[in-house]
Amino acid sequence: MEEDLFQLRQLPVVKFRRTGESARSEDDTASGEHEVQIEGVRTGLEAVELDDGAAVPKEFANPTDDTFMVEDAVEAIGFGKFQWKLSVLTGLAWMADAMEMMILSILAPQLHCEWRLPSWQVALLTSVVFVGMMSSSTLWGNISDQYGRKTGLKISVLWTLYYGILSAFAPVYSWILVLRGLVGFGIGGVPQSVTLYAEFLPMKARAKCILLIEVFWAIGTVFEVILAVFVMPSLGWRWLLILSALPLLLFAVLCFWLPESARYDVLSGNQEKAIATLKRIATENGAPMPLGKLIISRQEDRGRMRDLFTPHFRWTTLLLWFIWFSNAFSYYGLVLLTTELFQAGDVCSISSQKKAVEAKCSLACEYLSEEDYMDLLWTTLSEFPGVLVTLWIIDRLGRKKTMALCFAIFSLCSLLLFICVGRNMLTLLLFIARAFISGGFQAAYVYTPEVYPTATRALGLGTCSGMARVGALITPFIAQVMLESSVYLTLAVYSGCCLLAALASCFLPIETKGRGLQESSHREWGQEMVGRGAHGTGVPRSNSGSQE
Question: Fewer CB within a 10 Å sphere, N or C end of the chain?
Answer without folding.
Answer: N
